[in-house]
Amino acid sequence: MLGAPFGIETVCATNPQAARVDELQIDLGEGPSWDAYTRRSPVFAPNLTELSAPAWPMLLAALSADAVGALYAFPLAVGSLEIGAIGMYSEVPGELTPAQVSDALALADLAAVQVLKRAMTSHELDAQFVPGEKEYSRRVEHQATGMVLAQLNVSAADAHVIIRAHAYAHDRSVRETANAIVERRLDLSSPNVEI
């Protein structure tokens, strides 16, 4: 899910590499999933090594050592409601066939309805939230943002940017950095900031 009113989080991932690709896109604010979400159309990068003018320089740099040869993304929408995107990767470069694109679009439509139902049910059950139940929840980022806001006396938007910048500068995910802040292993107001 990539935006209002649902928030930004990974709903599920098929394996750790898929989760990493998705988390990097969320952390960096760029990638094919963002483009598919904003354009409401599929985005294909069938060969990451042959992109002439890369649209996602930070994402490609972060994935340079990973076994990712291609990225594909399909928008999730129900009517006029934009929900997010399904991101897929391939370890080797390659185009999707027309049949694969057609199947992916049909599955994205089905997934969009299910994600919408889950988001609505989850929203209703927020009062019963148990940490760890939502593996990809971004709640810890919101908590960390509040803590950094208090530590540095900055706006919430600036606090979130500072967290993202610190994560990027230390080659960590925003989730790892936020966890370190919430667990009080990292205090960004300290002159010797380290995780």
How would you explain this protein's 3D organization?
The structure is a single chain. The model is unreliable at 124-133 (pLDDT under 50). This protein starts with a strand and ends in a 13-residue tail after the last helix. The strands form two sheets. The protein has a three-stranded antiparallel β-sheet with strand order 3-4-5. A two-stranded antiparallel ribbon has the order 1-2. Helix content is 47%, strand content 13%. With 195 residues, it is α+β, with helices and mostly antiparallel strands. Helix 5 crosses helix 7. It contains seven helices and five strands, in the order E-E-H-H-E-H-E-E-H-H-H-H. InterPro entries: ANTAR, GAF-like_dom_sf, WH-like_DNA-bd_sf. This is ANTAR domain-containing protein. Residues 112-182 form the ANTAR domain.
Fold blueprint:
Elements: E1 2-3, E2 7-8, H1 16-28, H2 32-39, E3 43-45, H3 57-63, E4 70-78, E5 81-90, H4 98-124, H5 139-152, H6 156-169, H7 174-182
Antiparallel strand pairs: 1-2, 3-4, 4-5
Helix pairs in contact: 1-3, 5-6, 5-7, 6-7
Protein name: ANTAR domain-containing protein
Domain ANTAR: 112-182
Pfam family, one: ANTAR
How is this structure best summarized?
With 195 residues, the protein is of the alpha+beta class.
